[in-house]
Design a protein that fits this description.
Layout (H helix, E strand, L loop, with lengths): L2 E4 L7 H11 L1 H4 L12 H8 L3 E7 L2 E12 L2 E9 L8 H15 L4 E7 L3 H10 L3 E7 L6 E8 L5 H21 L8 H12 L1
Parallel strand pairs: 4-5
Antiparallel strand pairs: 1-2, 2-3, 3-4, 5-7, 6-7
């Protein structure tokens, strides 16, 4: 194998990349977890993935994986996607992509990378916590999903004790609010509707 990390691919290869992304989330679909990117169209690929800074693992004509990040301001980047082909698991593709991404984020003076994933997607959660060294910074439910999500922060430098405590408190409060006020698909519960109405009045 001659694996390389590149930043762009020809537009003619977009369908191949999209197919790889769909394949990479099949294991979660089989568990009943419907990630939004598992249903991406070519337009979604252009607007939500390739519009960011991309790192794409290739071996000749084969696309093995991708990670993409976007600037969301104030020294913070957001992880648009990380996907590895199921046919290229356990050969270090994810690590290569992670290292390239972190090198880019550090070089460009980002404070932290924000990301999220389904609470029940154990493999993805473990990747964020163990490989990326993320802190759980929140709990959320989004429209167009069927799951609750952990919100992560991956700091590019050392995270202070006080920030770690703040993130823990932030997570606990967001967990309580989300589970009381929202369902797994992002819709408001009865209490959530009352809270939303009061907010709009205020």
């Amino acid at each position: 194998m001659n694996i390389q990390i590149i930043n762009k691919i020809p537009e003619a290869r977009y369908p191949v990349l999209l197919s790889m992304i769909h394949d990479s989330f099949c294991e979660y679909l089989n568990q009943g977890i419907v990630f939004t990117c598992s249903n991406y169209t070519l337009e979604d690929l252009r607007n939500k993935v390739l519009s960011g800074v991309c790192f794409i693992a290739v071996d000749g004509d084969d696309i093995l994986g991708i990670t993409s990040v976007s600037d969301i301001g104030n020294g913070v980047a957001y992880e648009n996607i990380t996907a590895v082909s199921p046919y290229a698991k356990n050969i270090g593709i994810g690590t290569m992509l992670y290292n390239k991404r972190k090198e880019y984020l550090k070089t460009n003076k980002y404070i932290y990378l924000k990301s999220d994933t389904a609470v029940k997607a154990i493999g993805s959660v473990n990747w964020h916590l163990k490989k990326c060294g993320c802190y759980i910074a929140g709990y959320q439910s989004y429209h167009s999903t069927n799951y609750y999500s952990f919100v992560f922060r991956e700091y590019m430098g050392k995270c202070s004790f006080y920030i770690a405590i703040y993130l823990r408190l932030r997570f606990v409060l967001s967990f309580l609010f989300c589970r009381i006020c929202k369902t797994e698909n992002g819709a408001y519960t009865f209490i959530g509707r009352i809270v939303s109405t009061i907010r709009n009045i205020i």
